[in-house]
Amino acid sequence: MATLTDNAIAARLLDSAVRLFADKGYPATSTREIVESAGVTKPMLYYYFQSKEGLLAAALAHFINPFHERLRQVVVRRLNAHEMLIELVWAHLDFCQANQALARLFYTLYFGPEDQHGLVDLEQYAEQGHELLMRAVTQAKAARLIRAGSEEDFGMALHGMINIWVMAALRGEAELNRGVAKRVVDNLLRGYKHSDSR
Fold first, then answer.
1. DSSP, residue by residue, 57-70
2. Which secondary structure element, helix H or strand E, spans residue 192, and what is its range?
3. Could you tell me the pTM of the whole model?
4. Do residues 168 and 174 lie in contact, with contact meaning Cβ atoms separated by under 8 Å?
5. What contacts 21, CB < 8 A, 6 or more positions away?
6. Cβ(143)–Cβ(82) below 8 Å
């Protein structure tokens, strides 16, 4: 079954909207700028998305739903718990690196002014990602990689490190690769304590 984004015009509108929203901010981006960037007419935007807010919601879903599907594929693969954690971190880093405008837009909306929080339900996306990450953390506990009772703390630390690395990459201060994902997981599992310290 064809989806809205199989349509070339709708896809161009989504791409242009994400890029402009990320570069200028949602409130400062006009529908005129979006349609001009996409090379279509304003009625096309309203035909496919009804409004600028509808375009924002569709753009986030268009990009984030495949991301969550990628995370699900990691969780259901037959990997040992350590490899699963690394692949899950890498899926986050790789996706954000390949979709930098979307990552910037998401962080801007999520941490931005309160009046933008009601535009779309960002919590649903954050919760889905966190739930998938916690499934891998639960497997890490079952494999005795982390101690029982530390799952929530470990999951928050892992999520925090992912966000820090993504933000560093968005600022041009880091290059993301599988080696970074492995370091994040291994350092969190081992801790940063010097082996000579007590």
1. HHHHHHHHHHHHHH
2. none
3. 0.87
4. yes
5. 29, 56, 59, 105, 108
6. yes
DSSP 144-185: TSS-TT-HHHHHHHHHHHHHHHHHHHHTTS----HHHHHHHH
Instruction: Give burial (CB, 10 Å; 0-12/13-18/19+) of 118.
Output: exposed
Express each pLDDT in 84-94 by its tens digit: 999 999 999 99
Query: What is the rounded distance in angstroms from the CA atom of residue 155 to the CA atom of residue 12?
Result: 36
- Amino acid identity of residue 171, one-letter, is R
**Is 172 exposed, middle or buried, given 0-12, 13-18 or 19+ CB atoms closer than 10 A?**
exposed
Amino acid at 109: L
